[in-house]
Design goal:
alpha/beta, 9-stranded mixed sheet, about 30% helix, 7 helices
Length: about 240
């Protein structure tokens, strides 16, 4: 890049960079694989602001419930307690910390959209707390819980007409990115918009960033409820020591 490049040139360069990070321009199709979770995690980490962490793993709540295994979890980096990281790099993430979850499959089709929705709901159905906090030395009330973004990430896709029909049928899948075909997005109004193939990656890039910015920061976790699962000698909710 040089000083004579326009902003449009910069954005085109970024699109090419994203394609390279997913290996989409490799000449041999077997080299491209099926775009597994690790490729998507690296891809997302390449452009998401540092406030977001990306991992595969499980989501759990203060009632002791746990989600299905999730391919891609986007969660808060700065305020999320890391409870457990497994040897194969999976993380157990508190439900309050989650911004978005995605499933990774080779193709966007009805079966995989339905499967992704089941995984997404296994996270959305968990209990989430929200606690008052101190900001700039002043108390701030507990914020309203935000919607967890859910989607499907693939390489290929069935027809645009078919994808539109299936996303309409499986309400709750917000985004489908098929890197070699299109990106489909469900607006808050319920309207479904679909990009063409050349804009599949940049559309996903901008839409995801925009949706994350709309969410702001996740609610403050009430760690006292989680402590109740593990502590017998202390009751954090009451703030008193409990005699043994």
């Amino acid at each position: 890049m040089n000083k004579d490049m326009t902003i449009s040139d910069v954005l085109c360069y970024k699109t090419e960079e994203l394609r390279r990070s997913l290996g989409l321009d490799l000449p041999h199709p077997t080299s491209q694989g099926d775009l597994g979770e690790d490729a998507w995690i690296s891809f997302l980490e390449s452009f998401l602001p540092r406030r977001y962490a990306v991992s595969k793993g499980f989501v759990f709540d203060s009632h002791g419930r746990i989600s299905d295994q999730i391919d891609i979890i986007i969660y808060d980096r700065h305020h999320s307690p890391l409870i457990l990281k497994t040897p194969n790099n999976e993380r157990y993430v508190t439900a309050e910390s989650v911004y978005a979850v995605f499933e990774v499959k080779p193709e966007a089709n009805e079966g995989n959209i339905r499967y992704a929705l089941d995984k997404i709901n296994s996270v959305r159905n968990l209990h989430r707390t929200s606690r008052e906090m101190i900001a700039s030395g002043k108390p701030v009330g507990a914020r309203k819980l935000t919607r967890i973004i859910g989607g499907l990430l693939t390489k290929d896709s069935i027809s645009e007409e078919g994808i539109r029909e299936h996303i309409e049928a499986y309400d709750g899948v917000d985004m489908v990115c098929a890197t070699c075909a299109m990106t489909a997005f469900r607006r808050s109004s319920g309207e479904i918009e679909i990009s063409d193939e050349p804009e599949a990656l940049p559309a996903f890039f901008y839409l995801l960033l925009d949706e994350l910015y709309k969410l702001g920061t996740v609610a403050a976790i009430d760690i006292r409820e989680y402590a109740g699962l593990a502590l017998k000698s202390f009751n954090l909710t009451g703030g008193q020591h409990v005699a043994k």
